[in-house]
Target: Aquaporin-4
Amino acid sequence: MRGSSSSAQRLPALSSTLALCRSQPPEACLRCLPLCDRDRIMAAFKGIWTKSFWRAVSGEFLATMIFVLLSLGSTINWGAAEDKPPAANLVLISLCFGLSIATMVQCFGHISGGHINPAVTAAMVCARQLSLAKALFYMVAQCLGAVAGAGILYLSTPSTVRGGLGVTLVNSNISVGQAFLVELLITFELVFTVFATCDPKRSDLGGSPGWQSALLYRLGTCLRFLPDSKGRWCDIMIPYTGASMNPARSFGPAVITWTWTDHWVYWVGPILGGIIAAGLYEYLFCPDPELKQRFAGVFSKDASGKYREAESLVVKTGSVHNLDVEKAEKKEAFRDSSGDRLSSV
Model:
């Protein structure tokens, strides 16, 4: 097979390299280590030298920039300079966040997957839908895009009505631990909705996954609005932490206004909530059929009462196992191409 022959060709080269390292002093051997790990490092970062990769990264930057610009713009209170400034319209702000997200997913979903949220990107890594190297570039692009969007809004808004520029802050009446729990739970709801509505294994959903996930989640957000005793609509989550659910969305205005009070809450809480949601959905509630079948084989027995999977793992003396590397590479390429699951935040 092509895989066995290529592996056989690499073994002498690897043996000669190790022999050369052993024959050298310790200082020279340390200098050889980067050369020995070069192939492994290049394999980990494969794909970042392609145009499609940088097109996806730039798409995440632009999508996050536009999202932050539009969504934070809805928090600007243009009546703040009046004697009796009106209260913020929380329903308008929520709908602006949801519709801007849905629009960005429709524009950039086929380019980068439309994550626009480091918590969603981390969840995709946990669910084996995105490589770690690509996720790191995505997160950097998302944060830079958020800073750019908040900066454009800051420069284009008069200082008299600029206010806090949508900076997320923890309510002084709750503890930091409570704020962390709130961000974890609402981001868990968000990411679980993303995975459920964008699951390629489901056949009961029709239409665009991006619009479905964004609108379904924002519908749930609108249902959190309840009238108070005076008939005013109020959100039960925004007063706690500002309901960020997106580390990049909080990072952008924090950099522009240089406000870092309890900022770690808006990173650790959403990312942890997203990872938990991805793990529960992908490995407990709706596992991959192939992965489920593989684990089921571990506990299956044949007619003699032996475990089939355990028996197949025993390597007999003199036996040679040839792997169809070409078939595996084709399958891996298919997984990479479809791995950028369409998201919505």
